Amino acid sequence: MDHQTIKTSDNATKREGQQITMIRYQEIAPRRPLQRYLKCLWLLEREYTSGATEEILWPDGYVELLIHFGDNYVRAVDRSSPRLACSFVVGPLTRPVRLHSPGRVCVIGARFWPWGFFSFLHMPMHELRDQLVPLSDLIGRRAHLLEERCSALAVEEAVQVLQDELLSCLETSFIEPDRQVLGVSRQLLAGVEITSMKDITSQSGLSLRQLERRFHTWVGVTPKKLSTIRRFDEARQAIIFSPTLDLTYLANLLGYYDHSHFSNDFKTHLGLTPTAFKAWFSDQQASSPEKDVVFLQARPDLL
């Protein structure tokens, strides 16, 4: 087989004020040549018949390439904003981004490791930080051709076409990942906390200024910021998968100075405090016993 499914979720449910007729999310392991650069490929099919249609993207350290076949997203800051392109790149996020879709959502995507996207397009990643950029702005007419090819296929086949395109990019414009950036990033994603930047720089053999400059190019954020984002995302996942976990205990477990530090850091990255997010998620679970494993989460209207 060319691919391996690594996570799936299918759910159809009805919630108060909102009927979701279908949710399907699936992650697919990339082919071997892409595994150094991509965490996974994924597909999402989701349909609303009424009610809230906002989604939220949160920082997690990864870069996403999305191709959308449903009702195009609008950045939810202003509903009068132009619709987003059918294919776009979500750069490295440091704050939440809210999107709106009026109905059917059908998306395929590629989730790049923090260092992975630069190898394909050679664009300094700090220029994409907190940006949603049309793919056509990055690769021109090839983006529209890719959209046309994918839209004519079943969604699973479209994912494989996207893999083919990425493999082609590797063959024609590949840049070997920076070893120091790769090594430090892998440590941070593995949960190694930065107690002192001297520890990181001594292992990399670079000065702090040199390492941060390379991170700005390859990752889009500093090593310290990537560590902060990883810790936030670990906290978010802990709340989802262990909703009864005491938040003070969780803050201590993850090395936050105190609960206030934990709460402020969490709200910076998600727009909600841990307490508010936990309450919202508990409400979602009560109205839908099955867990919806999705990349885009319906935004809780708590702020």
Automatic annotation (TrEMBL):
Keyword presence, Kinase: no
GO-annotated molecular function: DNA-binding transcription factor activity; sequence-specific DNA binding
Pfam family, one: HTH_18
Keyword Transcription belongs to the record: yes
Residues annotated as domain HTH araC/xylS-type: 178-280
UniProt KW keywords: DNA-binding, Transcription, Transcription regulation
Superkingdom, taxonomy of origin: Bacteria
Alphabetical list of InterPro entries matching this protein: AraC_XylS_family_regulators, DUF6597, Homeodomain-like_sf, HTH_AraC
SMART domains, sorted: HTH_ARAC
Coiled-coil regions listed in the entry: none
PANTHER family: HTH-TYPE TRANSCRIPTIONAL ACTIVATOR RHAS-RELATED
Protein name: AraC family transcriptional regulator
Organism: Ktedonosporobacter rubrisoli
Organism lineage string: Bacteria, Bacillati, Chloroflexota, Ktedonobacteria, Ktedonobacterales
